[in-house]
Amino acid sequence: MTLLHFFILLPLLAAVAIGIIYKFQKNIHLGWFVLPVPFVIVSYLFTLIPNIQSGSNIYKPLNFMPRIGMNFDVYIDGLGLLFAILISGIGTLVVLYSIGYLSQDEKLGNFYIYLLMFMAAMLGVVMIDNVLMMYMFWELTSISSFLLIAFWTTKEKSTYGAQKSMLITMFGGFMMLGGFILLGSITESYSIREMIQSSDLIASSGVGTLAVILVLFGAFTKSAQFPFYIWLPDAMEAPTPVSAYLHSATMVKAGLYLVARFTPVFMWSTTWVNTILIVGLITLLWASFNAVIKDDMKAVLAFSTVSQLGLIMSLLGVGALAVTAGFNEEIFTVAVIAAVFHIINHATFKGSLFMVTGIIDHQTGTRSIKRLGALLTIMPISFTITLITAFSMAGLPPFNGFLSKELFLEAMFEISQSNVSFLSAISVFFPLLAIVGSIFTFVYSMKLLFGVFTGESFDTPKEPSEAPVLMLISPAILASLVVIIGLFPNILSNTIISPAASAILDRQNFVDVSISFWHGITPALLSTILIVLVGAVLYYFRDSWAFVYNYIKEAYTLNNLYDQLLKQSTYYSNKATQSLSTGFLRTYLLYIFGFFVLFNFMTMFRTGLNLDLSDLAPIGIQEVILVFVILISLGIIMMTKSRMVSIIMLGAVGFSMALFFVFFRAPDLALTQLAIETVTTTLFLVCFYHLPKVSKLPETRQFKLTNFVVAVLVGLVSILIGLSAYSHRIFDSISEYHIEHVYDLAAGKNMVNVILVDFRGYDTVFETVVFAIAGIGIYILMRMTSRRKDDGNEEHS
User: Fold this and answer.
1) Any idea of the CA torsion for 299, 302, 308, 311, to the nearest 10 degrees?
2) Is pLDDT at 797 greater than 50 in this prediction?
3) pLDDT digits (tens, 9 = 90+) for 447-463
4) What is the radius of gyration, based on Cα positions, of the chain?
5) 374: left (phi over 0), alpha (psi -120 to 50) or beta
6) What is the C-alpha to C-alpha distance for residues 757 and 680, in angstroms, rounded to an integer?
7) Contact between residue 245 and residue 115 where contact means Cβ atoms under 8 Å apart
8) Helix 643-663 crosses helix 621-639 at what angle (to 10 degrees)?
9) Alpha helices per DSSP H over 25-48
10) Helices 297-320 and 498-505 sit at what angle, rounded to 10 degrees?
């Protein structure tokens, strides 16, 4: 294990330590113990920038489950390093912010354990080269985010949002796993790097397009693309540090990372390009349109996040043309550069906005924009931070959001003017969708800023005041980065952006990145001016056109569709369960045996059943007699109405089996069988003798016939399986190995003892452990029962 493996697992190790610390340390805020973990990780990652910048990607293999191809292989290039720095860097600021946001009365141990689990999961997703291992970390992000969203378990909206995010993202994750398995079967490898090298092989396979669709399900559900975006607004019921971390800077960007990472794999697919581009633009437009009408600040930011994710997704769609066969045009690389740049910019301004929203909620007791206002003079620092980050989100200079937004518009105009055959019919609409979505982005950005901090009065549950310094440090740092990156964007050009863009484009030579404010009078600049002018007018007259939202009926929304699907699936699942769960053991055994017979007969029918009986031992007269004894005993058991007779006949079957062991020269098994059969028969006789006489349910002829048919079929299938296994031995019997080495390897004379203690020592140990666990469980139950009796006597007295 290398240092990179250790840093992926470090948050998990820290989570264990935090659980112990929280149990014994209550005086110091637990966040101070968590803070060093992401800080150490991001500090180490910054030291890797020179290596990545020089083109020396890092690959550290580690076998985990090599037989199934699941290895813990770490691969760091420009793209992985970018996301890892965002995860650990934003994580450091979020932990610092949470120290001021969360009080000691909260369940801090649970919160930080979940947060560290999520951090480790995200680091694994972006730093792992093996898709099976990536999937394991991918699903861990869903589990840990579920726990974080539902942190306030007493709030119904929190648990609803957590369930919604879990169902939708895990559905996409399962689809994505199917795509990974298809890719692995085609390329005979689960390494992403080897899949990239086998792109032509994937394209020529018959299931390549199906793999594209399945992988996109995982990306779209995780990154909240249309129509799967509905989980993200409800997830905002989580504590603000969770929203600032998971749903603006990290988790939702996992889908973007997946698309960026697999673009070289699916470079041949027009389905990949078309779907990413069109879905991204639809998401941008629809989410920005819906964000305008929201009153809750976090709801505005939730739809804003969905909108910005759609923007980045559409850029990755355009950028995919730069690596798609037949379209190796340099003009499309600007889209990849813009996507990488906006991923960074969005993390800075959106993370800060979420933190400021948490500050306002914390200091005023509400997030309702209608109840807020006139906070500019009361909370000047918060206002300054919001102004910087909201203007950046709106795409105004001189902030970093303006630069990436202009590159986005430039990419949309480039693709509309390019001769891309499979997009030519609709590409003229791409700049229009981008401009309209950006106009609504401007409107909700201004609403978030001026609706909260300007106006004549406020109506808040608490008297507003500026936040403590501890809560202001993290958003102030992010706002400072917004300004610094905006004024000096090229500090990231060759260090972060170019290596990441080159990884997406799968190029050995880094792309040339030069970002500046002035490019002349371009369509992108004119579009920006149009966006600001139209956006300002729409914001000023927003009450005049808000009636259009009245036409969106709740009954026809995707949220209602989700609720109805969940309701109906729950109803019919309960109906199916109730019809299948009769409460009778016989019914459940019938299900088990029925499927056992069905699937085994289907397997035998499809594969054929060839039995080789030439090597079977001869059957003696004594064995035939024992078989008849067993059959007669079983017949008596089925026909008799006496419990005692049934138990005696069952004992006869067991004793007959012991005689079989004697004939097969296994005296130790015979003695064991005799001892166990004697004890169990005696115990059953005693127990059933004292049981009350309960009338049996009437057994119809159909009931008995069903039992008979199932019993015969199960016996027949078992016999056929046994004979088939004996006829087709893949390996030689291990008994010869035991016979040859019982003396020289184990230095023993009793072969049975040597096998149990030496050759099968682990089996014996685990069997002993099982007995020990069962004994402990019985002891605990006895103690609990005795305590209840004592408590009952005390109450009675």
Assistant:
1) -90
2) no
3) 999 999 998 888 888 89
4) 34
5) left
6) 27
7) yes
8) 160
9) 31-34, 36-46
10) 60
